[in-house]
Write a structure and sequence with these properties.
Layout: E1 8-12, H1 17-28, E2 32-37, H2 42-50, E3 54-59, H3 65-79, E4 84-87, H4 102-130, E5 133-138, H5 142-145, H6 151-171, E6 176-183, H7 189-192, H8 196-203, H9 215-226, E7 237-240
Parallel strand pairs: 1-2, 1-4, 2-3, 4-5, 5-6, 6-7
Length: 246
């Protein structure tokens, strides 16, 4: 993709699943990748380095503002700038509203919504100083149409869309861009563990394309939105879902 080579790209939740695919894709594009995760991102870093790319892994708890500030400080120390902030870290804790506890609700909101605020608010001042930068956030098709048992998750994924649109209106005049990717049902390890009958009857039945998406297909959407080819796209939500929202 045009304009990604040499860019400093931070990927939260970058050590596994969709995040690992995003990190790997930007590594292939020649970006300098920061795999930011609570877990161990060394395998992803090694994979990028074996392919000739540049990457580091940093520990971060996106719910902790001070942890995020420390992470971003390390990014600036290593690379002197941040060009692309990808807010991908996320969790779920599903339950029907009649059973969902405040703890379940608040835990998901803390990671999926407050965590996005924390990371973006720390990255934007550097981007304003540079007069350039892209912030991309993983939303979800569930954030667009809801689903049973995911009050907390849907609220967080709808919320990041609202924040993204606000940030685009605030900062487009300064050369910054903010967009969301809304994945549908993707073949991550979590989804692959679902019993086959439930997968076929409750999930794939809702997908006109008739299959799960691949993490690499989500990564491709992020690469496009971060590239110069998308430089007039701002405040948008790109659904990558096999037509399941239609």
């Amino acid at each position: 993709m045009e304009g990604l080579k040499g860019k400093v790209v931070v990927v939260t939740g970058g050590a596994s699943g969709i995040g690992a695919a995003i990190s790997t894709r930007f590594g292939k594009e020649g970006s300098k990748v920061v795999v930011a995760d609570m877990g161990d991102g060394s395998d992803v870093v090694k994979s990028i380095e074996r392919a000739g790319g540049t990457a580091i892994c940093l520990k971060v708890d996106v719910t902790d503002y001070e942890s995020v500030k420390m992470m971003m400080g390390e990014v600036i120390n290593c690379f002197s700038r941040v060009d692309v902030m990808i807010n991908n870290a996320g969790i779920n804790s599903d339950n029907l509203i009649k059973k969902m506890t405040p703890e379940q609700f608040n835990k998901v909101i803390a990671v999926n919504l407050t965590g996005v605020f924390n990371c973006t608010s720390v990255a934007v001042p550097y981007m304003l100083e540079q007069k350039s930068g892209v912030v991309l956030t993983t939303s979800s098709v569930v954030g667009l149409y809801g689903n049973v048992g995911v009050t907390n998750y849907a609220a967080s994924k709808w919320g990041v869309i609202g924040m993204t649109k606000c940030w685009a209106k605030e900062n487009a005049k300064y050369g910054l861009r903010f967009n969301c990717v809304a994945p549908g049902f993707i073949a991550t390890d979590m989804v692959k563990k679902i019993p086959e009958n439930i997968l076929n009857e409750r999930i794939l039945a809702k997908v006109p394309a008739g299959r799960l998406g691949e993490p690499e297909e989500i990564a491709a959407a992020f690469a496009f939105l971060a590239s110069d080819e998308a430089k007039f796209i701002n405040g948008a939500v790109l659904s990558v879902d096999g037509a399941c929202t239609l």
